[in-house]
Amino acid sequence: MDRAGVGRVCLALPGATLDHPFGEHHDAYRIGGKMFAMVGEMGGISFKVSDIAYEVLTEEGRARPAPYLARAKWVNLERIDAWTNQELAEHLAIAHAIVASKLTKKQRAELGLS
């Protein structure tokens, strides 16, 4: 997958938006104003994972703790194409779901989420 592919996958998720809070070379994908994935200027990607996935992915060396976001259980891949397209797309959908689940009931309803 490439940067454009990440955009297609993320923006296809319900209520997802894109902005550039750290400059135009960083893509931040959000749901309800909360970030669930980010593509960096150097071609890496960071995204939210579950506590268990964080432990497994970082212990196995498949991902590293995301700079500045590791304490919130985010992982980082130095290259977007480090995983298969399907696997990355699945993790991005999970990241979206994790963050969406923490939105208020009202926010979820406004975004058309159950």
From TrEMBL:
UniProt xrefs under Pfam families? YjbR
The domain of life for this entry's organism is Bacteria
Give the organism, scientific name. Brevundimonas lenta
Which GO-annotated molecular functions does the record name? DNA binding
Q: What keywords are annotated for this sequence in UniProt?
A: DNA-binding
Q: Which InterPro entries match?
A: YjbR (IPR007351), YjbR-like_sf (IPR038056), YjbR/MT2646/Rv2570-like (IPR058532)
Q: Specify the protein name.
A: Putative DNA-binding protein (MmcQ/YjbR family)
Signal peptide stretch: none
